[in-house]
């Protein structure tokens, strides 16, 4: 979906230009990556400093050997030798727990809660030639499909589950938001303030894109704005006009 291109803002050229997930995701990935590079540099100025941190090395070894024992010898594990290595690993972890999680999880209700669009089960199999229902199926496939839908109780339970998965709690913390006093290190606070400002700029850009009629995959009649990467959100379910979030 993308190729490396140093002439592009994030070093990548998207093969589909109007690709909301990738376009918005690159804004947040870039902010996270810059934040982690500066943060790590404040505490690990050299490769020697990284390698001398026994607790850090033990943590990463446990990730490989215990957390993923079945892939412990895989050749694709990233190295943990330099500040750049550590920053890249931390960026990936934070991305997975925030923006990536939001993209996969919080958009379920608007699409999946409408049972005919995404039924959790069908009460009838598609008939094969010779089955008693085969002629009925050919005569009116639409009606046959509706007759296979979950009954009311099953549908309600499924909608409730999807509602719970997609709901934002009132006490969520979002990217770029931290209560004062989480660290007494002035260096870390300054780096974090820069990150928070970058996240706010990303949110403003996402909102601008969602109003741009030239972006047909996120703006226009019958098209939901792409808000899964918006870094803040009120509590509750995401609907049209109510931002989603990438909370952590």
TrEMBL record:
Protein keywords: Dioxygenase, Metal-binding, Oxidoreductase
Residue span(s) of domain Lipoxygenase: 1-248
Keyword Cytoplasm in record: no
Signal peptide (from-to): none
GO MF terms, alphabetically ordered: metal ion binding; oxidoreductase activity, acting on single donors with incorporation of molecular oxygen, incorporation of two atoms of oxygen
GO BP terms, alphabetized: lipid oxidation
PANTHER family from the UniProt entry: LIPOXYGENASE
Protein name listed in UniProt: Lipoxygenase domain-containing protein
Organism: Dendrobium nobile (Orchid)
């Amino acid at each position: 979906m993308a190729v490396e291109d140093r002439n592009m803002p994030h070093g990548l050229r998207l093969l589909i230009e109007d690709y909301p997930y990738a376009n918005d995701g690159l804004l947040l990935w870039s902010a996270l990556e810059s934040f982690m590079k500066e943060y790590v540099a404040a505490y690990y100025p050299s490769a020697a400093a990284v390698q001398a941190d026994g607790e850090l090395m033990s943590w990463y070894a446990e990730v490989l050997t215990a957390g993923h024992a079945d892939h412990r010898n895989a050749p694709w594990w990233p190295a943990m030798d330099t500040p750049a290595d550590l920053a890249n690993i931390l960026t990936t972890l934070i991305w997975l727990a925030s923006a990536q999680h939001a993209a996969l999880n919080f958009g379920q209700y608007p699409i999946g809660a409408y049972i005919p669009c995404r039924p959790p089960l069908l009460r009838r199999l598609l008939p094969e030639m010779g089955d008693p229902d085969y002629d009925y199926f050919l005569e009116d496939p639409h009606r046959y499909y509706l007759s296979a839908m979950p009954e009311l109780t099953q549908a309600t339970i499924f909608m409730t589950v999807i509602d719970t998965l997609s709901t934002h709690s009132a006490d969520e913390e979002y990217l770029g938001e931290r209560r004062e006093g989480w660290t007494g290190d002035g260096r870390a606070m300054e780096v974090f303030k820069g990150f928070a400002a970058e996240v706010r700029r990303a949110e403003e850009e996402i909102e601008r894109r969602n109003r741009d009629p030239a972006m047909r995959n996120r703006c226009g009649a019958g098209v939901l704005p792409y808000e899964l990467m918006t870094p803040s959100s009120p509590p509750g379910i995401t609907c049209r006009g109510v931002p989603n979030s990438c909370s952590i």
